[in-house]
Amino acid sequence: MPGLHPAGQLRPAIVKQLDLARHGLATSAADAAYVSALADGGSLQLVSSANDVATIAAIRRLSPRDAGRWPEFVGFMNRAAAFLDAAYSTTMPRLPKVELRADGLPLASLALKLRRMGGKDMFRVMRSLSMSAVEFTEEWFESEPLNAAIAGVAIHGVTLGSMSAGTGFTLIHNWLNRGGLAHRTAPGGPQGLTDALVKAVHANGGEIRTDADVAQILVEHQRVIGVRLASGEEIKASTVVSSADPRRTLLGLVGAPELPPEFVWQTQSIRMRGSVAKLFVQTDGRHGLPAGTVAIAPTLKYLERAYDSTKYGEMSQDPYLEVTTSGADVMIHFQFATYALRNADWGLMRPELEKRAIDTLTLHFPAFKGSIQSVQSITPVDLEQTWGLTEGDLNHGQLILDQIFFMRPLPGWSNHRTPIDGLYLCGSGLHGGGGISGTPGRNAARAVLRG
Amino acid sequence: MPELSPCHHPLYQLRRTPFHARTSQLCLPHNWRRWGGCLAVGSYDLGLDREYWAIRNHAALIDISPLIKYEITGRDAARLLHRLTPRDIHKMQVGQVYYTGWCDDDGKLLDDGTVTRIGEQNFRLTAAEPQYRWLAMNAVGMQVQVTELTEQMAALSLQGPKSRTILNLACEQPVDALKYFRMAFNRIAGKAVSVSRTGYTGDLGYEIWMDAGDALVIWDALVAAGHDYGITPTGILAMDMARVEAGLFMLDVDYTPASHAWIPGQRSSPYEMGLGWTVNLDKQGYFVGRRALEREHREGSSWKLVGLEIDWEGLEREYAAVGMPPQVPASAVRGSIPVYAGPRQVGYASTSTWSPVLKKYVALVHLQQPFFAPGTKVEIEVTVEHHRRKSPATVVTLPFYDPEWKKK
Lengths: 451, 408
Description:
By secondary structure, chain A is of the alpha+beta class.
């Protein structure tokens, strides 16, 4: 089975620090295409660069005014992403207790960096974070298909609709991780990234053990002493760094009885709520899908309605899809497939999930259905049971405004530490996380080195 | 039928305890107090003497049903209480009772009460305040059921030197073998009860736990059995004097639970409240507040609850100066009174009382380090004819009153 992510790029600084190019990591293709299938059967193809002639021409057919604003929009999004990147590279203070010695300098340098990026932009970025994708895009553009195409990226991977507050933030977050609207696939795909990382670990004298499920993190007197594998083997360690989601790490692997009650309550309160399903479809190659990242996001209301179903414990009747192809293989990202179905379970709903995904895609690409040879689907429950993601949340905790920055993973615990000495968190549930960027891992490594 | 005004809505009314049919007939001065959302008898007479002396000389019967009570059962019942409290619950025997406080993770007291091991996987916890949420927060990841029994379970406290004799007459099984802080099942008037040798008076005494439906039958049986021994229905005001003599403190009077504190300085640790003996730092595993308590144990506490005896000659002098004999309060005073060392205030009394049995004016006081050492001479504020004066006093170890029959 292929990986869950169609693409993934680490931040350039991390690639450089780890010297991943030397370990075989290929650079991603620039200017990938983002193709939005429209309601009338046509499509809108966007390349996220300010001066792409074909993109501007395509937008001009919808609205000459929007075509004129496109270069400015791309410039703004790139600067907004750079703001976020700078914030993500800075370990957040443990509010409300700011420790001037530990947090003061990095925060001051972040403030300086942001200031240098421009005061006017900073205000606009701050304002954008709390806006909805609808409000945000409609401030820029008047064309519905263009706004909806952008809004699709804003709600990608989160349990939020195009009209939810905070999807301005998730748009900038996804733009940063992708480098624009489209996924940029490097030769070798996400597997190439994993291979390079493995080589880097080996080259530095590290050892990686696979097929070694951690069953328990061993604790004595609120200090980590190692891990116990599912096989029963115990590995002693004075430092344990977990990339599993915070709730699974703390309540599952450490266990609530070892943790302070208020902290347990806070950990239980992290909103997870996955609503993404994935499908891997093998075709005979005649699927008729264009290359690049294909989105089924025809209108802003279509996206909001797809999201509405999660509120009622249902799967979207007309889902938001994002599709990537690799030769004859088609990978479909399906939203919204809520983890907590009402009056149904994922064992029984799987055929319906596959049907809705295939029918929706076939509506826009009629050749698709006939080309299918096999279908493999991953429901949110599979994500939880096979991948260990609590409630099937790929982000290890929803990317919502009260769960980001110094409130990620928990208010007061934004420095990768836990109430268990020697136990650190480094996964997507941390500041900078959601998606593949390497940022939470790099920040965690810094915290471990600081001791 | 006229419509009830909102203040008559059942939600706004104090509940009646299962003994109300008896206590309300006897409560002649209508001296009712509020305790845990219930009507509780303050005193059955206009004065407290008869009830106080029943505690110290024969036997007082006190309705303690408003106590908050929980039943904790299941595979992890002991584990939950071991985590909740600083005591080593795993060492507890079936039939044993522990007195303990419990803390937040900063090591500051939230409440105090007793833990009774009813069975291997069955405990009873009493508390001054509702604790269900805190118990549930601490039970995450455990196989345990917490059931509140406050209203289903009635309780009587029988306190005084004659309490054993009366219980032996009333109970099916004699209670002679029941040791201090132990519990045993028994029957009174054919009804199942559990009897623990516990109390809030510092005297020989027992607490009797029963189904609320059996309350009146058991009350009547005890009153009948105790008739010849001077059994006396007693209110909580006389008990308040006795508990100060016994050096026992009260939530919201002698300490502010961390969950009620407006500012950090209002909170108290078990060490500060003289409960260091309940903090078992050698026990296995995490318990709430462990790190903070370890630190306090290492570094020492800056406050401590101790006893204070007000010097009688000094008090007499202050009153003599205005031509009066010394005045002492007629019941326990729940109010903060400053304590000085020279010109500097070094602490305060939280409850003070005249002790009829000791013939002394005593107080539970909170003193700063190093003034809490026994024998330290300090001064306490007294108001003499509307003027604030200071009277000399001496720090003593608690309890003030500890009769030999209490634990015998």
